Amino acid sequence: MNHTEDLTRYIAEFVDEMVENGIDNAVISPGSRSTPLAMTMTAHEQLKEWVVIDERSAAFFAQGLAKKTKKPVALVCSSGTAAANYYPAIVEAKQSRVPLLVLTADRPHELRDVGAPQAINQLKMYGDYVKWFHEMALPDSSELMLDYARSKAAQAVDTATRGNPGPVHLNFPFREPLTPDFTLDDVWGKERRGEHFSFVKGKKILAETELEMILAKLSGKKRGLIVCGPQTDEQLADAIFELAEAWRVPVIADPLSQLRTGQQEKIHMIDSYDAFLRDKEIREMLTGDFIIRFGAMPVSKPYLFYLNEQHDAMHFVVETEEGYREPTGKNTFFLHADPQSLCNQLACLAERVDIAEGWLQKWQVMDEIAGSYLTGADQNVITEGTAILSLADKLPDDGVLYSGNSMAIRDVDSFLLQTQKNVDILANRGANGIDGVVSSAAGAAAAGSPVMLVLGDLSFYHDMNGLLAAKHYNLNLTVLLVNNNGGGIFSFLPQASDEKYFEALFGTPLDIDFQHAAALYGADYRLAENHATLEEALEQSRQQAGISIIEVKTDRAQNAAWHREIWDHIIKAIKTHHWQEDSL
Amino acid sequence: MNHTEDLTRYIAEFVDEMVENGIDNAVISPGSRSTPLAMTMTAHEQLKEWVVIDERSAAFFAQGLAKKTKKPVALVCSSGTAAANYYPAIVEAKQSRVPLLVLTADRPHELRDVGAPQAINQLKMYGDYVKWFHEMALPDSSELMLDYARSKAAQAVDTATRGNPGPVHLNFPFREPLTPDFTLDDVWGKERRGEHFSFVKGKKILAETELEMILAKLSGKKRGLIVCGPQTDEQLADAIFELAEAWRVPVIADPLSQLRTGQQEKIHMIDSYDAFLRDKEIREMLTGDFIIRFGAMPVSKPYLFYLNEQHDAMHFVVETEEGYREPTGKNTFFLHADPQSLCNQLACLAERVDIAEGWLQKWQVMDEIAGSYLTGADQNVITEGTAILSLADKLPDDGVLYSGNSMAIRDVDSFLLQTQKNVDILANRGANGIDGVVSSAAGAAAAGSPVMLVLGDLSFYHDMNGLLAAKHYNLNLTVLLVNNNGGGIFSFLPQASDEKYFEALFGTPLDIDFQHAAALYGADYRLAENHATLEEALEQSRQQAGISIIEVKTDRAQNAAWHREIWDHIIKAIKTHHWQEDSL
């Protein structure tokens, strides 16, 4: 065996096994030390490679692609700070349970800790933010070590996808020369060995006795609530609505629950709660006895206020595998079970659950009042809220809405109410960063569907580099850029009134003309000064590939005032509604 | 004591002590959780704050500012992925020994690992890349805890600056409300407590017996070499040249050694070695007996080839404090000593060192031949090399040249030869990344001197976000953008001939018109198609504040060929030089 044969076979079999185990896409950043991985992935016919230059963007791109396809994506970069640039997206992927295979090239052992160029200590460099780290052996094409390479590829994919999915990290030391030789016979080892590890994986199903424990806890509880926070399984909606129908309880549906979109009947769904739960008196009208939550904690802060006040309620949190996602610190009964199966099991127990008359209706009435104010907001002037109404109207069927964090996701929460369209609504809600959002949306678009991205100017600026891949691969990406020239969400904080510090530290106006950013990346650009222009631009953009940037300019202080005014109207309308005695 | 008083006094005394111990600058990224740190730093009158929105840029900005000022800089960000964006610059700072105080705001303990928004595990999140991590206690204004806050601030600054300087990380849990109250009496605790820890710090000076050990190793060695790699102490040049004069040995001076620039007589300096050490025969002519290196390993790859072949030489590596920066793996005698003092001590021992006649001259002759080819390169056509000649000509006295990595630093190495100007030549040579370079240069400019930055298009693209701070603070930053539309350095690799993979994986053309980037950040823009335009643009730019972008467009393949041609000429000229018998 010689060096090049060792290198070629070892990496080829690793890549082949990774593909056999379900990796379809690899996101590669250019570099020299990563040559063996990059060239071999490009040579493998079943693997699609995406070359993304800025590694921070590359990792968010992979995260968006994996989130949309619900399949793990491989990431490849060279040694040094390249690998450190992956960190923000790795943190996000870990927290939002997105599977990634992070493959970093490294200098061999003799070039470590001796001041060699571009050599940094890459072992365990992502700390607790990867589910598994393994330092690969140097390339070797002995039988034993080809089995090893295959087993580690399979283990990596399995670890990334099983339990709560997340990133795993393998570090590859490579000696020069780095170029593989694909003219060798049976490079992929298909004839000699074939795939190495295969898996079947069961789901967690509750036993009869465990269901009885739940029922015992529900005994005498008459006011129940189902809550579905951020989660990406669009099949879950049917099961949840069937459970709600059987039990006659309301379903609080987060914008990222995948419940607000799709063909299902949504009569039990409450989607305007963020507006009316802002009021303490209203929250008191809605005091509950039990809450069963699927998915992560909802985006809505008013919902969190509500939750914090439910001292006497039974709190159930459903986790497909594991987790402690209950930030209120309340007594909690964690249900580790496949959510769909659990819904089906619970629905069958409907006759043993006794929900109060009028409970569902009270939520429905409030939701209807709030919803009609929100969707009926005055559209003569364009606002951060009403822009979302136009966006909702123009969402492409079978497309994706990617939402930025900060104000964007809150406006999506308020104004993107139920629709029959089959749209995935995605966001980076693991760590809620404003970073990497453009790249994540581009990655989602790489899965093949048109993507509409709504985000603020700070978030857009933070990841403008993400537009390069969208341009390079001519992805269908529409950016609705809500430009309030700075950190709009901070206008809702107490320090907004402190003039000495506010603009410099929190307002942070960018004073950037984003038309130049559009020109830089060959994007269509439209400034939408009213709803007609906005809707026309959205309509046009969704029908064409490439990047469209549609900018809406707003004022931070006006925006805060406008939101407060709508909320006040809604709260007043609910309070003055003619409620029947017993429901108050 | 109430919450706001606890918060205010605790953070104010922390910040005050940090300032007392030598922090003059803080780079702050906007966020809510970091409000106590951000507002208090802004309120402290002796601290200058810089608001930089993209945290990746912010950390590189701080790194550039700390590198130029040789003083630690504080970094402040909010919780979540914000902190993860610091990672690339933290890695660079650790490896290039730049002191940083990384201060991250965090959620309090009860909001950790429970799925709370923007809460990630920030403890030890930078792994081995910080010299020290400490989780701060919750704010508390008892006597004991104010002493604690002060002592931790002082410890942090001391740890960042002592030994090999580097980043330290303190994580601050904060509960709401987050706004401090500066109307309290004696907020800074100056009257009640004053500063807490002060330090005097000695230098490592070798004893007589240790010097004798060195002399014993040098016994009979006649062909000696002093090498100075990347280091930032501009005072070291005098001491090294005095030693070289005393011993009559050549000094190989890396472009980042701070030896090539400045008023000193430089007759012992060799600065064109990168060209002539490419040839094996020439390297054999220069076989040495001992090498004493100051600073990190030089940038030059041919120097590394040379070093690898010096099997019989004694290798000395001088480290101010500690380190193993010797990637060739040769037998090495590490000298842990203050470099200036060591030079002075060694110079006094000159009569006990016996250098061969003609040894210094041989290096000088080769250097002169190579230097005349390099500085005399045909300037009718503008090339990546000759652009540096114009740049060298127009460097502002008392300014900074910041060099990008990859091709840029190699061309600076080849073409930026000695000058009397007092210019700092800086680069990110800890991990040699192409990331963060614009921000590092902007950070260096924030120290007050005009900065000229030379870098390639991939590196510029990677960190265009870095221009925002330069625009916002109207820094004097000139960018010489050498645009070869992709990864120019890869054209020197063996895989450059592999057409199937090369352009997609290594060439990676950006196809971007950077004029739009200039417009985006309000920068002056000039395309320099010849040397006259280039020099005029450089001249103009250095005289005005704000960003100037001067673009030179080149062709990757032509560039590789052009470099090879010059090297061939130099090698041929040296070989056909009329050498005296005994020097061959």
- The number of helices of chain A is 22
**Distance between the amino and carboxyl termini of chain A:** 82 Å
Shape call of chain A: globular
Instruction: Report the major sheet of chain A.
Output: 6 strands, parallel
Could you state the oligomeric state of the chains shown?
Answer: homodimer
pLDDT below 50 for ≥5 consecutive residues: which ranges of chain A?
none
Structural class of chain A: alpha/beta
Largest interface: A-B, 83 and 83 residues
Gyration radius over CA of chain A? 26 Å
Q: Bin the strand percentage of chain A.
A: 15-25%
Secondary structure: number of strands of chain A: 18
Q: Order of strands in the sheet with the most strands of chain A? A: 2-1-3-4-6-5
Q: On the 0-100 scale, what is the average pLDDT of chain A? A: 96
**What level of helicity do the residues of chain A show?**
25-40%
Describe the structure in your own words.
The structure is a homodimer of 584-residue chains. Chain A contains 22 helices and 18 strands. The model of chain A has no long low-confidence stretch (mean pLDDT 96). Chain A is globular. Chain A is an alpha/beta fold and 584 residues long. In chain A, helix 3 runs parallel beside helix 5. The longest helix of chain A is centred in the C-terminal third of the chain and has 21 residues. The first copy, chain A, has a 6-stranded parallel β-sheet with strand order 2-1-3-4-6-5, with helices on both faces. In chain A, strands 9-8-7-10-11-12 form a 6-stranded parallel β-sheet, with helices on both faces. In chain A, strands 14-13-15-16-18-17 form a 6-stranded parallel β-sheet, with helices on both faces. In chain A, helix 11 links the parallel strand 10 and strand 11. The termini of chain A are far apart. At the A-B interface, helix 2, helix 4, helix 5, helix 17 and helix 19 of A face helix 2, helix 4, helix 5, helix 17 and helix 19 of B.
